[in-house]
Specification:
The structure holds two protein chains of two kinds.
Chain A (H helix, E strand, L loop, with lengths): L2 H25 L6 E5 L1 E2 L2 E2 L4 E6 L4 E6 L5 E5 L4 E9 L5 E3 L6 E6 L5 E2 L4 E3 H5 L6 H33 L6 H18 L7 H29 L4 H23 L15 E3 L2 E3 L1 H23 L1 H11 L1 H6 L4 H26 L6 H16 L4 H18 L8 H15 L13
Parallel strand pairs in A: 1-10
Antiparallel strand pairs in A: 1-6, 2-3, 4-5, 4-7, 7-9, 8-11, 12-13
Chain B lengths: L1 H6 L3 H12 L2 H19 L7 H18 L6 H23 L4 H20 L4 H4 L17 H8 L7 E4 L2 E4 H26 L1 H11 L1 H6 L4 H27 L9 H14 L6 H25 L13 H19 L8 H4 L5
Antiparallel strand pairs in B: 1-2
Helix pairs in contact in B: 2-14, 3-9, 3-12, 3-13, 3-14, 4-5, 4-6, 4-12, 5-12, 8-12, 9-10, 9-12, 10-12, 13-14, 13-15, 14-15
Classes of the chains: A alpha+beta, B mainly alpha.
C-alpha cells in the first residue's frame, strides 16, 4: 500500500467513524420531556410549594410540590398551550414580584424539557437593593478571572507543547477542547453518569481526548510531517480539520447549548467576601492540581525531560538517544487530554455547545502567545493573565468588550515582545 | 440499484443550480476577495488570515459614510471612503505585524479581524454601525435614498425582465450586479497581471522566494510588503462592497472568520500565485459546494441517506465540512490547485 493510499484511507476512515458513531450516541440523548423549574427567591430555594398545570381547556394535567431543593417537574403530555400556576403556600415575606404573575403561559411546539420560572421577591429585597462594596466586587471579578485563567491555561498547554515539539500552530486545538466537553456530556447522559458518578464521565472523556490526540498524530499530522510538508501547509490543514470537527459536532451534537445535568443550579457558598457556587471551588482546585501535576511531569519524569529536550532542539535530542517520534506522540496524547479536561471545566462553568471551540480559539492563542509559543509554563502564565485581564475588565467596560481585551493584549504583546513573557528571543527569526 | 438511485435525482436541477451559483454574485464576491488574497499570499507570501477584515472595512466604510450622508450621499465617494478605510486597516495590520514570522502574522491578522468585527458589534457604535443589528438597509438618513436602490434601479441600464435560458435565468437587478461584480473581478485581475509583469511584481515575488536575498539587493522589503497588503486589501474591500450591493445590508455575521477560510479554500482550489486561479477557484468552489449540497438534499429527500446520518436541516453544515475537507485535502495532495504551478505554490513562508 502506498503512503498516498494509506493517507486517503485514514481520512475516509476518520470521516466514516465519526459519521457512524455520533448518531447512536446522539439518539441516546433524548430523555423524558417535562416542565421543570426551581422555586427560589434570590439564592434561597423554597420547598413544598404547589405547582399546577392546566391545559388550554382549563383541565388540570398535573400538580406537584417543590422538593427539598425547590425543584419540581411535571411531564409534558403533548404539544399544546399550557398554563403553569404557582399555587403556594409561599413563606412569610415572600411574594410574587411586582409586575410578574403567578401564572405563566407556555406554548409547547416541540416535546422537549422546558423550564418555567416564577419571579419572587422577599419584603427585604423590595426595600433595599444591596450593593456590596467596590473592593469586594473587584475581588469577586478577580477570583472569577483566576478561574477562567486556570481553565484557559489548562486548555492551552497542549497547543504550546505541540508547537514546541513539532513547530505546528494547530488551529484544531480549540476543537479538541470542545470535543472533550461534548464527549463528557454525551457520556453523562447516555451512561447515566450523573451526580456522584460524574467524575467517571470526566475521566473517560479525558482518556478519549487523549486517544483523539493519538489519532490526529498517528493518522494525520505524523504521516504528513514525514511527507516533508511545511509547518505552514500543516497549519492550513489544521484549519480544515477544525472546520470538519466543529461542524460534525454541530450535526451530531445539535445546535442548542446544553449543560451538564449534574451541576445545573447551585447555591452560592461564601468564603469570606468571595461567593461562588460549590462547583467553582472544585474547578479551581482541580485545575490548579492539574497544572501542578503538569509541572511535575515536565520537570521530574523521563518523558517530561524528553519533551522539553525535543522542544528545545529536536536534532540534539535525537542524537542523545531520545525517540523523537515517540515523544511527539506522547505530547499529542497528553496535550489533547489536557485540552479535553479544560473543555469539560469550561463546559461546567458555561455551556457545552458546538461553537465553544470557535469561541475559545483566540483566547487560547492569546494565552500561548502572551506566555511564549512553545513553552508549557508560558501557556500557564499567559492563560491566567488573559483570564484575569478579560474578567476584571468587565469591572470598567461593557461585558461584550471583554473578549476584545484579550485580543488587544495579544496584539500588544506581539508588538512589544513577540516572543512572549517566557519565550526565548531567537525563536522568532 | 444505481438506476434506482438516479431515479430520485434531478440531474438538470443539480447542474443548473450549481452553474447558476458559480456565475452568480456570490461567486464574483469570493473571486474578488481571492484576487486580493492572491496578491498577499500567492505572490508576496504573506499569511493573511484576516481577509474578512478588508471586506468588512470596505462594506462598513461605504455603508457608514453613505447612511450618515457625510459625503453628500454620493455613492462613488462612499465607496472611495470604504477603500480608504481598507487602506487604514492594511496599515494597522501591516505596520505592527509585517515584521513578525509567518505563523505570528497569521494569528495577529485573525485577531485584528475579530477585533474589528467585535468593535462593529459593540453597543457603543450603535449609531454608526447599528451594533449587533447591522445596517439592515444602507440608506442615506437625510435624503432617504437607499444604496442598493440607486445601484440596482437608478443606475441600471438593463430593461426590466428576466434574462437567460434553462435554469440560468436572472432578473435585471441580479444581472446588473453580476455584471458589476465580474467587471470588478476582471479589472482587478488585469491589474494584478500588469503588476506582476512590472519590476514591482518581480520584487514582490523575490520577497516570497527569499526575503533575505531581496533585502541583500537593497530592496526595502517591509515597504514592498506593506504596499502589497494595501493593494490586495483594497481589492478585497471591493468584495465587501459588491456583496453589500447585492444584499443591500451589512451586518457583522457576514464577516466571521469562517469567510476568510472560504476565501483561502477558493484561492488554493484555483491555484495560488496564478493570474486566473482565484477566478477559476471561485467558480469551481461554488459549483462543487452547491452540487454536493443539492445532491445530498435530493438523496435525503428520496430516502437514500437515512435521517440518522444526515437530517435535511443539517445540510447547511455540510458546506462548512466540505470547505474544511477541501482545504486540508488540497493542501496535502494538490497545493497548486487547478491551474497553479507547483513550484510557485509550495510556499514555505517564513
Amino acid at each position: 500500500m502506498t503512503k498516498k493510499v494509506k493517507g486517503m484511507l485514514i481520512f475516509a476512515l476518520a470521516a466514516f467513524c465519526a459519521s457512524v458513531a455520533f448518531p447512536f450516541v446522539a439518539s441516546a440523548l433524548d430523555n423524558e420531556a417535562a416542565f421543570r423549574g426551581t422555586v427560589r427567591v434570590g439564592r434561597e430555594v423554597i420547598p413544598d410549594v404547589t405547582i399546577t398545570i392546566l391545559d388550554d381547556a382549563g383541565k388540570e394535567i398535573g400538580s406537584t410540590a417543590s422538593g427539598e431543593d425547590g425543584k419540581w417537574e411535571i411531564p409534558i403530555p403533548s404539544i399544546g398551550e399550557y398554563s403553569v400556576q404557582l399555587i403556594g403556600p409561599l413563606p412569610e415575606g415572600v411574594t410574587v414580584k411586582e409586575g410578574a404573575a403567578s401564572e405563566v403561559a407556555v406554548l409547547v411546539e416541540e416535546i422537549r424539557t422546558t423550564s418555567v420560572g416564577f419571579q419572587l421577591e422577599t419584603s427585604e429585597q423590595k426595600n433595599i437593593l444591596e450593593i456590596p462594596p467596590t473592593w469586594e466586587r473587584l475581588l469577586n471579578r478577580m477570583v472569577s478571572g483566576l478561574k477562567v485563567g486556570l481553565l484557559v491555561a489548562l486548555a492551552s498547554i497542549g497547543l504550546s507543547l505541540i508547537f514546541g515539539v513539532t513547530g505546528l500552530v494547530n488551529f484544531a486545538h480549540s476543537e479538541m477542547v470542545a470535543f472533550g466537553a461534548v464527549i463528557a456530556l454525551v457520556l453523562e447522559s447516555s451512561m447515566g453518569l450523573t451526580g456522584g458518578l460524574f467524575p467517571i464521565a470526566v475521566i473517560l472523556a479525558v482518556v478519549i481526548g487523549g486517544f483523539l490526540g493519538l489519532f490526529l498524530e498517528k493518522g494525520i499530522f505524523g504521516p504528513l510531517r514525514r511527507k516533508k510538508m511545511t509547518n505552514i501547509s500543516l497549519m492550513v490543514v489544521s484549519i480544515g480539520l477544525a472546520f470538519l470537527m466543529r461542524y460534525l459536532m454541530l450535526i451530531y451534537h445539535g445546535a442548542e447549548p446544553k449543560t451538564y445535568t449534574s451541576f445545573k443550579i447551585q447555591t452560592g457558598v461564601s468564603l469570606g467576601p468571595i461567593e461562588l457556587p460549590p462547583k467553582d471551588y472544585y474547578i479551581i482546585s482541580i485545575a490548579f492540581v492539574a497544572l501542578v501535576a503538569v509541572g511535575i511531569l515536565l520537570q521530574r519524569t523521563r518523558l517530561g525531560t524528553s519533551m522539553r529536550a525535543v522542544s528545545d532542539n529536536p536534532a540534539l535530542a535525537e542524537s542523545s538517544g531520545i525517540d523523537v517520534n515517540r515523544t511527539i506522540m506522547w505530547v499529542w496524547i497528553f496535550g489533547s487530554a489536557l485540552a479535553g479536561m479544560g473543555g469539560i471545566m469550561i463546559g461546567l462553568t458555561q455551556v457545552v455547545e458546538w461553537q465553544m471551540g470557535e469561541k475559545i480559539l483566540l483566547l487560547i492563542f492569546a494565552a500561548v502567545t502572551l506566555g511564549g509559543l512553545g513553552t508549557a509554563y508560558g501557556a500557564m502564565v499567559g492563560g491566567i493573565a488573559i483570564g484575569l485581564a478579560s474578567e476584571t475588565s468587565t469591572f470598567w467596560l461593557d461585558n461584550d468588550l471583554k473578549f476584545l481585551i484579550a485580543l488587544a493584549v495579544l496584539i500588544v504583546i506581539l508588538l512589544v515582545r513577540p516572543q512572549g513573557i517566557l519565550g526565548i528571543r531567537e525563536r522568532l527569526g | 440499484m444505481i438506476m434506482n438511485l438516479l431515479a430520485g435525482i434531478d440531474i438538470s436541477k443539480l447542474l443548473g443550480l450549481a452553474l447558476r451559483t458559480s456565475i452568480g454574485v456570490q461567486s464574483a464576491v469570493f473571486a474578488l476577495a481571492a484576487v486580493g488574497l492572491n496578491l498577499h499570499y500567492g505572490y508576496t507570501g504573506l499569511l493573511n488570515f484576516g481577509v474578512v477584515a478588508f471586506m468588512a472595512a470596505g462594506a462598513y466604510g461605504m455603508a457608514i459614510f453613505f447612511t450618515q450622508g457625510w459625503l453628500g450621499g454620493s455613492i462613488l465617494l462612499a465607496i472611495a471612503a470604504g477603500l480608504v478605510f481598507a487602506v487604514g486597516i492594511a496599515l494597522s495590520i501591516g505596520l505592527p505585524s509585517l515584521r513578525l514570522r509567518a505563523d505570528y502574522l497569521a494569528i495577529t491578522t485573525i485577531a485584528i479581524a475579530e477585533v474589528l468585527r467585535i468593535s462593529f458589534r459593540s453597543q457603543r457604535l450603535l449609531d454608526l454601525t447599528g451594533g449587533p443589528f447591522g445596517l439592515p438597509s444602507i440608506e442615506d438618513r437625510n435624503a432617504e435614498v437607499s444604496f442598493s436602490e440607486i445601484i440596482t434601479v437608478d443606475w441600471n441600464p438593463i430593461n426590466d425582465g428576466i434574462y437567460g435560458f434553462w435554469r440560468l435565468r436572472f432578473d435585471e437587478q441580479t444581472l446588473w450586479v453580476m455584471i458589476l461584480g465580474w467587471t470588478l473581478v476582471l479589472l482587478s485581475t488585469l491589474l494584478i497581471w500588469g503588476l506582476m509583469r512590472s519590476p514591482w511584481g518581480r520584487v514582490i515575488k523575490a520577497i516570497r522566494e527569499d526575503e533575505d536575498a531581496a533585502r541583500a539587493l537593497g530592496k526595502n522589503v517591509f515597504s514592498y510588503k506593506l504596499q502589497s497588503l494595501i493593494i490586495g486589501g483594497m481589492i478585497a474591500s471591493l468584495a465587501g462592497v459588491t456583496r453589500a450591493m447585492n444584499t443591500g445590508f451589512v451586518e457583522t455575521q457576514q464577516f466571521k472568520p469562517q469567510t476568510t477560510f472560504f476565501i483561502w479554500t477558493v484561492l488554493i482550489l484555483g491555484g495560488a500565485a496564478s493570474i486566473w486561479g482565484p477566478v477559476i477557484g471561485a467558480m469551481a468552489f461554488w459549483f462543487i459546494i452547491i452540487f454536493v449540497e443539492e445532491l445530498l438534499r435530493q438523496m435525503v429527500d428520496s430516502g437514500w441517506v437515512p435521517e440518522a446520518v444526515l437530517a435535511s436541516n443539517d445540510i447547511a453544515s455540510v458546506r462548512m465540512i466540505m470547505m474544511g475537507v477541501m482545504l486540508g485535502v488540497l493542501m496535502i495532495w494538490r497545493p497548486q490547485g487547478l491551474v497553479g504551478k507547483k513550484e510557485e505554490a509550495q510556499i514555505d513562508v517564513r
